[in-house]
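__Record contents__

***
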Amino acid sequence: MNVLPEQLDADANIFIAQGCYCNVLDEHGAFLLVKPLRLPAGFFASNNAMIEPGALPGNLLLGVSTPIGPHDYREQYTDRPDLPRVLAGNPSLSLGATSQPAQPVHPKPSWWVFMMRFVLNDFASVGVVPGITVFLATTLLVSLNALGLSNIGAALVTSILFPISLPLLALLIKYLLVGNSWGAKSSAPFWSVRHFAYFLAQDCFFRLMSSFMSTIAGTALANPLLRRFGCRIGQRSLIGLPIQLSDWHAVDIGDDCVVNGQMQLHSFENRILNVARTKIGNNTVINHGSMLMGGATLADHVTVSPQSLILKAMQLPPGLHAGSPTQLVNPEPLSH
């Protein structure tokens, strides 16, 4: 995040998503320039957003891959709340606020829900999951030794069983915590077991599948396994980064597609986790650096240029699309 604790002033009810860059430290030749960063109440920054220090507004939802800085907003009153607003794109566009005039009232989490968050998030995701591969390999090796195999024999059998057991374990955890259908068009409160279980299943998927998925990235070999997790992927489609498809039931990719961009199919709005299925039509190409959000629909024969942003619920007709947010540049489908 590039944040110095001494230069950070964070108010209540803020959220900084993964990959967000808060720039408080700049290089000016032989000198370093440090600027304080103040995050006002109700500030929500999405993945890969860019925040420059300065007079930032509160009650703000900053969209995916969206920059914001002091040149965008002048200093506001500090004794009254800011009006709700949503910014997305580069340059940023002001969109309709997602919240009603009266903010929803979220009940105080019960002791049981708070403890489940500790177990599923703090203990399992942070404490157990990072070492799960080492624990699994050690358990296999020790168990085979206990069954009478020699050290060399146990090591050979472990080297065969270990890579096979990783996707099976990830698949088992996914079915136990998520099920067969949740996530196609679903929502859950932030303080809920469903939310914590969903992210724990994703953490296990990343940890257990990252090595294997990186090996077969950009090929069709990942498609059968992703289908077992619940993704809808057509024939002969290629995924540049298959490990990112962790919102399994929200993935719907047609035939003969190439997906090299990022797919951000879940989001938080008013402390509600929302997952929406995105449909990608046949013969569609999403180029490197593009961001695709949940609930969008891409027709057949769509080409998305690099570094483009496809917002939630967008509907893209056939042709070439570019920009952040993206817009139709050429209605004639490109030959693939």
